Amino acid sequence: MLLAALIGFLGAGCKKSKSVFTLQLKGKYGSQSFALNTFNADTTGVVVGIKALQFYISNINLIKTDNSTVVITDVALIDFSNPSSLTIKLEGVEGNFKGIVFGCGLDSAQNATPYPLTAPGVLNNAYGMYWGMNNFKYRFEVMEGAWDTAVLPDMRYGLIYHIGLDSNYRQVQLNKNFTVCCGNPATLSVYLDVRKIFHGDTQTINIAAVNTDDVTSTSDAPALAAKFAGNFSKAFGF
């Protein structure tokens, strides 16, 4: 009995602790820091103040060096007004990795989730991301705020973008080598550069030209909504 107990004790002491992987979402505005309800000056003479920024990312997978994948989560709602939503954790991750892949928005199956009032998790309509009208389903990205040519007590121009529709779903792959091993915690920080949403690598959104429009896929500006979705997906990096 004593020997069995001793063996059991030693066996328990030799168990490996599980590594905890953390995906940390952060924001920036070009070379400036970013936070809600603060102002960021643009080189084009525009000052932007964003009061709401929330969006879905989905099908989040880590890519191993052998090209196999580890699922982090099927869908997450990132809300910059809720710091806890910017961190996604997964226990038991091990291996050598070369990047991460995820979708901006919801894939067609997720976007077709029935009965959003009772849908599980962040697809529940309680989060206010479901359109419901005209069968346009979920908002993928929501940005609201104001802009002007200087920081004023009352910013004169509105800034409202609500983007949805299956056609505006985009996939992102970011490449970076890292290892998760041996029970040690590991954190991968991914930045959203808000400035790149307006000033992308190949296309620019003229804020002044659409300063009061609700730029959605249901509006009369579907091309602009697609441009926003494209720039948004390319605004992520390390």
Structural features:
238 residues, 42% strand, mainly beta, 4 helices, five-stranded mixed beta sheet
Explain this structure to me?
The protein is mainly beta and 238 residues long. It has one domain (18-237). Helices cover 14% and strands 42% of the residues. The protein has helices at residues 2-13, 108-111, 194-198, 222-233, and strands at residues 20-29, 32-33, 39-41, 47-64, 69-79, 87-91, 95-104, 139-148, 157-164, 170-180, 186-193, 214-215, 236-237. Strands 3, 4, 5, 7, 8, 9, 10 and 12 form an eight-stranded mixed beta sheet that branches. Strand 1 and strand 2 (32-33) form a beta hairpin. The longest helix has 12 residues, at 2-13. It is globular and about 60 Å long. It starts with a helix and ends with a strand.
Q: Could you give the order of the helices and strands?
A: HEEEEEEEHEEEEHEHE
Averaged pLDDT, please? Answer: 89
First-residue to last-residue Cα separation: 55 Å
**Which stretches of 5+ consecutive residues score pLDDT under 50?**
none
Strand percentage lies at: 35-45%
Structural class: mainly beta
Number of domains: 1
Total beta-strand segments = 13
Q: Main sheet? A: 8 strands, mixed
Q: What is the helical fraction, as a range of percent?
A: 10-25%
Overall geometry: globular
If you compute it from the alpha carbons, what radius of gyration comes out, rounded to the nearest whole angstrom?
A: 21 Å
- Tally the helices: 4
